[in-house]
Write a structure and sequence with these properties.
single chain, alpha+beta, 2 domains, elongated
Length: 230
């Protein structure tokens, strides 16, 4: 049988704003002891105050998010023309571009080299059935920029049961890449990997490799593992 008390806060507040005075009125009409309702009235007053504060904090948080988004858009709009100027300035060197963390363009007519470095996959696994992966180059792990001529990365994954003596976790993906499943080809530095409910509790084993603009593939990365939160 459905509960007569609503579940959502908004409907609960509306219900109690009707119920409490209605009960108080009915109680007095019966000539019953009004002191019996003291705890109800105090609790209703505390809830009204707490709910109003909660709504105000939600509105403040939403306002703060809009302010942050506006400030970010303003900062980005200020950055882009300055980067365009730096890129076109005759004295700008590739070393300066690397230091600034902006794109290093290969000379026109120069074919992209086969990638020689490997991606490094960083995994955040706090959310249920979700991993957030960030790819950086092993030679510049603190920067988001990919190596020159690299279009993106292939990411492959294998799901295994928690390792034990009988089923140890794999240690070298290059020995058996066919046992991994293609996950995505990404040109972005970060992306989400989502799993099915039955895959919670398993270990996701990732490997990746860079691909240049001519489709040539670099060496496999070291494996990265993370548990899929159930």
């Amino acid at each position: 049988m459905p509960d007569y008390i609503p579940r959502s806060d908004a409907e609960y507040a509306a219900y109690m704003q009707h119920f409490v005075p209605a009960l108080d009125y009915w109680w007095s009409r019966q000539g019953l002891d009004p002191g019996t309702l003291d705890e109800l009235l105090y609790a209703a007053g505390d809830f009204d105050a707490a709910y109003a504060a909660h709504i105000a904090q939600q509105a403040a948080a939403e306002g703060a998010r809009h302010a942050k988004d506006a400030a970010r858009a303003r900062l980005t709009a200020a950055v882009r023309p300055l980067v365009s100027f730096v890129q076109s300035y005759p004295a700008t060197t590739d070393a300066a571009r690397a230091e600034l963390g902006i794109t290093i363009r290969p000379p026109k007519g120069t074919p992209a080299r086969t990638p020689s470095s490997r991606p490094l996959a960083l995994v955040e696994s706090g959310q249920r059935l979700t991993h957030q992966l960030r790819l950086v180059d092993e030679s510049t792990p603190t920067r988001r920029a990919r190596p020159a001529g690299v279009l993106g990365a292939e990411v492959w994954v294998k799901l295994v049961a928690p390792p034990n003596a009988d089923t140890p976790a794999p240690t070298d993906p290059a020995r058996d890449p066919s046992s991994f499943t293609f996950l995505t080809m990404t040109t972005r530095p970060s992306f989400r990997a989502e799993f099915k409910a039955g895959e919670g509790g398993k270990t996701a084993v990732y490997m990746a490799r860079w691909i240049n603009t001519r489709g040539e593939k670099g060496p496999w990365s070291e494996i990265t593992t993370a548990t899929v939160a159930a």
